[in-house]
Design brief:
The complex is a heterodimer of chains A (174) and B (154). With 174 residues, chain A is mainly alpha-helical. Chain A contains ten helices and one strand; from the N terminus they run ααααααβαααα. Chain A starts with a helix and ends with a helix. The mean pLDDT of chain A is 87. Chain B has eight helices and three strands, in the order H-E-H-E-E-H-H-H-H-H-H. In chain B, strands 2-3 form a two-stranded antiparallel sheet. In chain B, strand 2 and strand 3 form a beta hairpin. Chain B starts with 10 loop residues before the first helix and ends with a helix. Classes of the chains: A mainly alpha (174), B mainly alpha (154). Chains A and B meet through helix 2, helix 3, helix 6, strand 1 and helix 7 of A and helix 1, strand 1 and helix 2 of B. Strand 1 (99-100) of chain A pairs antiparallel with strand 1 of chain B, so a sheet runs across the interface.
Chain lengths: 174, 154
C-alpha cells in the first residue's frame, strides 16, 4: 500500500486534497468525455470524493489510489448516465468543454480541437474511454483494466482499435 | 501486456491539452471531504450534488436554509394553502423538496410527502420564487444577516 493510500485509509483530510490534486482535472475531463456536462461532472466529482471518504477503509487494499478514485468515478458516472439516458443521447461533445489551448505553433489549433473532439465522439464509448484514460489519464493498461473492470488484453485491443480509428479520421490532417 | 511506446501516441492527440476541472471545484471537494470527516471548520461550499438540489435558480447557488426561508415566506406572504403552494412548485423542483426532507426540515416533511403524491404541478413558479428571494435579499436586513451569518455567503 502506498503512503498516500495509508493516509487516505486513516481519514487524513489533507490526503484527500492531495488525491484531488493528483487526479481532479483528469477525472473531470474523463467524465465530460463520457457525455456529462462540465457542471454535472463537477457535482459527480464531489460525490466521488464523498464516497471515497465513506469507504476510506478500502484504501488499505489499494495500490494506486488514483486508479481507485477513477474506478469509483466510472461507477458513479455510469449510475448517473443510467438515470439520464435520454439526455446522454442528446448530448453533443463540445471541443471547448474538452480541450483548451493549444500549441502556439499551430495556428489552426482550434480546428484541431474540433477535429479531435468530433473524432472521439464517433469512437465506440469503450474505445474512447480507454484512449482517454491511457493518453490523458496516463494510466497503464493494467490500471485501466482495473478501472473499467475489463481484462487487460481487451483494454489493449480497444486502445489499438481506438487509436487506429483516430488515425484514419485525423491522420490525413497532419 | 506491453504498453505502447510514446511514439505510439499520435501527435495530434497531444496537440490539444485537456481542459481541467472548473475553478472552485477543488475547494468544494476539500470542504465536502472535511465535512464528511467531521471537521468543525465551517465552509461555505460543503454541499454535494444531492445537497445542492437544483438550487441554481437563475444561475445562483442557493443554500437549503435560504430556500427554506424564502419558501416559507413565499407561502405566508401569498397566504396560499399548502396544497395551493405545492401546485405552484414545478415538477423539476422536486430535488428541492428531497433536499429539504433529507435535511430534516420539519416544515417541509409533510409538504414533501404530499408533493410526491401529486401528479404534475403547474410549472410556473421558478421565477416567482427567484423574484421573492431577490426581493427579500434587497429589502430585509434581517434576512441578509440570517443568510450571511449562517453560511458566510453573500
Amino acid at each position: 500500500m502506498s503512503q498516500l493510500a495509508r493516509r487516505l485509509a486513516s481519514g487524513e483530510s489533507n490526503a484527500f486534497t492531495e488525491l484531488y490534486d493528483l487526479c481532479g482535472d483528469q477525472m473531470h475531463h474523463y467524465l465530460v468525455l463520457k457525455r456529462i456536462s462540465r457542471e454535472d461532472a463537477g457535482d459527480l466529482i464531489q460525490e466521488v470524493f464523498l464516497r471515497l471518504v465513506r469507504k476510506k477503509e478500502a484504501f488499505r487494499s489499494v495500490e494506486n489510489p488514483v486508479a481507485f478514485a477513477f474506478q469509483v468515478a466510472r461507477n458513479e458516472a455510469n449510475r448517473w448516465l443510467s438515470r439520464t439516458i435520454r439526455k446522454r443521447e442528446q448530448f453533443r461533445l463540445i471541443a471547448a468543454d474538452l480541450f483548451v489551448e493549444v500549441d502556439p505553433r499551430h495556428s489552426e489549433s482550434a480546428d484541431w480541437r474540433d477535429a479531435l473532439t468530433n473524432a472521439l465522439a464517433v469512437l465506440p464509448d469503450e474505445q474512447s474511454e480507454v484512449v482517454v484514460l491511457k493518453i490523458y489519464g496516463e494510466f497503464t493498461f493494467q490500471e485501466i483494466a482495473v478501472i473499467t473492470a475489463t481484462p487487460q488484453g481487451t483494454v489493449a485491443t480497444r486502445y489499438r482499435r481506438g487509436i487506429g480509428k483516430l488515425n484514419e479520421i485525423l491522420g490525413h490532417l497532419e | 501486456m506491453n504498453e505502447p511506446s510514446d511514439s505510439g501516441v499520435p501527435e495530434f492527440m497531444l496537440r490539444s491539452k485537456p481542459r481541467g476541472a472548473p475553478e472552485g471545484l477543488r475547494e468544494l471537494v476539500v470542504a465536502t471531504v472535511a465535512k464528511e470527516l467531521g471537521s468543525t471548520h465551517r465552509h461555505t461550499g460543503w454541499f454535494t450534488r444531492t445537497e445542492r438540489l437544483r438550487f441554481q435558480i437563475a444561475g445562483s447557488l442557493l443554500l437549503a436554509s435560504v430556500a427554506t426561508f424564502f419558501l416559507v415566506e413565499l407561502r405566508e406572504q401569498s397566504r396560499m394553502t399548502r396544497v395551493d403552494f405545492k401546485k405552484e412548485i414545478p415538477d423539476h423542483d422536486r430535488d428541492l423538496f428531497e433536499f429539504l426532507a433529507y435535511h430534516d426540515e420539519p416544515k417541509f416533511h409533510e409538504w414533501f410527502r404530499s408533493y410526491r403524491e401529486m401528479a404534475k404541478p403547474s410549472a410556473q413558479s421558478l421565477s416567482q420564487i427567484k423574484n421573492t428571494f431577490l426581493h427579500m435579499i434587497q429589502i430585509d436586513p434581517e434576512f441578509q444577516k440570517y443568510v450571511r451569518g449562517y453560511h458566510g455567503l453573500f
